[in-house]
Design a protein that fits this description.
single chain, cca-adding enzyme, domain 2, seven-stranded mixed beta sheet, two-stranded antiparallel ribbon, 24 helices, binds cytidine-5'-triphosphate
């Protein structure tokens, strides 16, 4: 049990400049008689004794209007989203922006639809949220500073380490909450409460109605966690991954790939680790379903092609043969492929290609071949390739031998 007041706990979760800014915003709200709250994630983090990095503020009534007053008086700038009634504030002394929204109620026209938004009271704003631990607010204006709004006993759930939805339709309204449940559970070392777990199976089919972009975003948020494989394992256990594609799984091998490197992870590397075992058909399905970025999809396909050719690559008979096998592939795919390839000789060969073979430079170029009497045309490229192959295989070395070999090759053409 904490003996410190919420006001004190809030103060100690803030840096000095942030404390100053928040006080400034709160006193403007108080003067205008506008109840202002810190809501959601930052409240949760503050009660966990973690520092607050991002501010989410809500105000009862018009948020844009209040944001304008704050920006004017504290010397900041703002961007507004009239349609959602939200504003993003950039204030002096703070590198990250602050979001200000109106307290609102949300309804879902159909499962997985984006919500329809109406102005509401702070209690309505709490009621629309995902989990009890994210459905708390701390009031900031005037004498109310430090008052905790906790209608769903989020503070108790934080103490017990519980992830609990607010109502039985929560996952059906918004199946991306399945990803969020796994993410928060594993980030904090909590457990999803039993009754909440029971709500998962009926929500699985609704996942099919969520857009690829939203699903991809949830994966990428998990990739940003310290140990993404833990949340991904939960999604596997809950059959969320299967719902997206039968081949999308998390097993010991995949976990080991995540564990073999420290965070932070490149999203692309995570996709390779997660999808490295998929068949070409499943890979195509997943990349389309999750609407992966074009470059990511192309490079992933290359990684899979490298994986499927690993025996050939491992057995390349010569340096020049290896060069021709790998020449077609992009850098990122080659570098990432080592995570999807088991054959050690193939891995070593890719490494050798990246570090050594592709760095090999000829001392002769097309202009020099012309000076040696070779007419312009396709032979120029062919001879340069033969020269490079000879240098790679060590049958020719040094500028003089290169020149002699070039002359021999030109004589054969002429
Ligand atoms: N929220 C929700 N349902 C969602 C997404 C968000 O109810 N599908 C609510 C939660 O109350 C959440 C708040 O909106 O706390 C802000 O969402 P977000 O910024 O995504 O989460 P944070 O809780 O701030 O988490 P993080 O620490 O990962 O930023």
């Amino acid at each position: 049990m904490h003996t410190m007041s919420y006001a004190d706990r809030l103060q100690s979760a803030l840096t000095e400049p942030d404390r100053h800014l928040l006080r400034g915003a709160a006193s403007i709200a108080a003067r205008l008689n506008r109840p202002l709250y810190l809501v959601g994630g930052p409240v949760r983090d503050c009660l966990l004794g973690r520092p607050i990095v991002d501010f989410d503020l809500t105000v009862e009534g018009d948020a844009i209007d209040l944001a304008r007053s704050i920006a004017r008086e504290l010397g900041g700038t703002l961007k507004t989203h009239e349609r959602f009634g939200t504003a993003r504030l950039a204030l002096p002394g703070r590198s990250r922006t602050i979001d200000l929204a109106m307290t609102r109620t949300e309804t879902y026209a159909r499962p997985a639809a984006l919500p329809d938004v109406l102005a509401g009271a702070i209690q309505d704003d709490m009621a629309r949220r995902d989990f009890t631990i994210n459905a708390m607010a701390i009031r900031l204006d005037g004498d109310y500073f430090g008052e905790l709004i906790d209608p769903y006993h989020g503070e108790a759930d934080l103490q017990h380490g519980m992830i609990r939805v607010l109502h039985a339709r929560s996952f059906i309204d918004d199946p991306t909450r399945l990803f969020r449940a796994a993410r928060f559970e594993q980030r904090f070392g909590f457990a999803v409460e039993a009754a909440t777990l029971n709500l998962i199976p009926p929500a699985l089919p609704v996942l099919d109605q969520v857009s690829g972009d939203r699903l991809r975003h949830e994966f990428e948020l998990i990739f940003r966690e310290d140990r993404p494989e833990r949340a991904l394992t939960r999604l596997h256990d809950w059959r969320v991954l299967r719902q997206i594609d039968h081949e999308l799984i998390v097993d010991d091998q995949i976990r080991a790939k995540f564990q073999s490197r420290p965070a932070p992870f490149e999203p692309f590397a995570c996709w390779v680790w997660l999808l490295g075992h998929c068949s070409p058909v499943a890979l195509m399905h997943v990349t389309q379903r999750l609407n992966l970025l074009r470059d990511d999809a192309i490079d992933l396909e290359q990684v899979m092609a490298l994986r499927d050719q690993q025996t050939l690559i491992g057995n390349a008979p010569s340096a020049s043969a290896l060069y021709h096998q790998l020449d077609y592939f992009g850098d990122r795919a080659l570098q990432a492929a080592t995570a999807a390839i088991d054959d050690e000789r193939a891995r070593a060969n890719i490494d050798r290609y990246l570090r050594e073979l592709r760095e090999v430079k000829l001392s002769i170029d097309g202009t020099r071949l012309k000076a040696l009497g070779l007419p312009e045309g396709p032979e120029v490229g062919r001879i340069l390739t033969k020269l490079r192959d000879a240098v790679l295989d060590g049958t020719v070395s040094g500028p003089q031998q290169e020149e002699e070999y070039a002359q021999t090759l030109i004589a054969q053409v002429n």
